[in-house]
């Protein structure tokens, strides 16, 4: 696992956007897995800026979704499909046909989960999966004690996660109780995992993910099992890393985006 410490969120976004540019230059039709929330916004803004400046041709890129709320009506502004279309697909000038995600409105939700897992495999697998991390160490919506070999499935959100996401809704009561999420096993099948964490609130989760044991109580710790995982953190999120000095000395010149 590479851990790269950057000065702030903007620097992290620029660094990861450059990794995505390098990938698209090597593989123009790469399948990019995206995350939602406020943390990855600097990535998408930096990447869109590079596309507009013609630093990279993203016209053949494909986008896939990490997770989705269950039960929000089609077109709801806070459904993750709407968010990804608004924050990623449209700014990059991509066709909506380039986007794939699970159906949170399906009558057979479990069937929709299995269908999405199959669709990712049939698409050739995810080339680069962006991840955020919750204050409790969750990735996607794999809450603590999720199986480390889990597949795409329906999950019940913890109260903490619902409270964390309430800022995107008019009322905390509007936050759905259930989601579809790629499982940890599904996530680990991506060729490159890139996690961005910013802010002091994420410092404990980052330290447990990077330096703690691999354990289901901290789902993000499963990244230690991946052959090519990059963790990008700002100074605040890195504040509880015991090996912060080592990471600065080892990885801060330029991460090995192409892997080993």
Automatic annotation (TrEMBL):
EC number: 3.5.99.6
MF terms (GO), sorted A to Z: glucosamine-6-phosphate deaminase activity
Activity regulation text: Allosterically activated by N-acetylglucosamine 6-phosphate (GlcNAc6P).
Residue ranges constituting the Glucosamine/galactosamine-6-phosphate isomerase domain according to the UniProt record: 10-225
Substrates-to-products reaction catalysed: alpha-D-glucosamine 6-phosphate + H2O = beta-D-fructose 6-phosphate + NH4(+)
Pathway: Amino-sugar metabolism; N-acetylneuraminate degradation; D-fructose 6-phosphate from N-acetylneuraminate: step 5/5
Alphabetical UniProt keywords: Allosteric enzyme, Carbohydrate metabolism, Hydrolase
Keyword Hydrolase: yes
Residue positions of the active site: 67 (proton acceptor), 136 (for ring-opening step), 138 (proton acceptor), 143 (for ring-opening step)
Record Pfam families: Glucosamine_iso
InterPro entries xrefs: Glc/Gal-6P_isomerase, Glucosamine6P_isomerase, Glucosamine6P_isomerase_CS, NagB/RpiA_transferase-like
Site, Part of the allosteric site: residue positions: 146, 153, 155-156
General function of this protein: Catalyzes the reversible isomerization-deamination of glucosamine 6-phosphate (GlcN6P) to form fructose 6-phosphate (Fru6P) and ammonium ion.
PANTHER family xrefs: GLUCOSAMINE-6-PHOSPHATE ISOMERASE (PTHR11280)
Similarity comment: family membership: Belongs to the glucosamine/galactosamine-6-phosphate isomerase family. NagB subfamily.
Protein's UniProt name: Glucosamine-6-phosphate deaminase
Organism lineage string: Bacteria, Bacillati, Actinomycetota, Actinomycetes, Kitasatosporales
């Amino acid at each position: 696992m590479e851990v790269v410490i950057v000065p702030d969120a903007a620097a992290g976004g620029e660094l990861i956007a450059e990794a995505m540019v390098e990938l698209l230059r090597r593989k123009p039709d790469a399948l990019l897995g995206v995350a939602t929330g406020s943390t990855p916004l600097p990535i998408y803004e930096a990447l869109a800026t590079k596309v507009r400046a013609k630093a990279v041709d993203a016209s053949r890129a494909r986008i896939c979704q990490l997770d989705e709320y269950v039960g929000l009506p089609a077109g709801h502004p806070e459904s993750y499909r709407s968010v990804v279309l608004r924050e990623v697909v449209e700014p990059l000038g991509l066709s909506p046909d380039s986007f794939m995600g699970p159906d949170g409105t399906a009558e057979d939700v479990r069937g929709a989960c299995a269908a999405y897992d199959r669709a990712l495999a049939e698409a050739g697998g995810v080339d680069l999966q962006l991840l955020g991390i919750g204050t409790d160490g969750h990735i996607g919506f794999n809450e603590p004690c999720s199986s480390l070999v889990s597949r795409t499935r329906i999950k019940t959100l913890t109260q903490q996660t619902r409270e964390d996401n309430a800022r995107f809704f008019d009322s905390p009561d509007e936050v759905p109780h259930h989601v579809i999420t790629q499982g940890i096993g599904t996530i680990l099948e991506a060729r490159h995992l890139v996690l961005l964490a910013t802010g002091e609130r994420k410092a404990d989760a980052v330290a447990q993910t990077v330096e703690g044991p691999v354990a289901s109580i901290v789902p993000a710790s499963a990244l230690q099992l991946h052959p090519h995982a990059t963790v990008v953190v700002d100074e605040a999120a890195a504040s509880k890393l015991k090996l912060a000095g080592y990471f600065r000395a080892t990885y801060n010149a330029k991460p090995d985006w192409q892997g080993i």
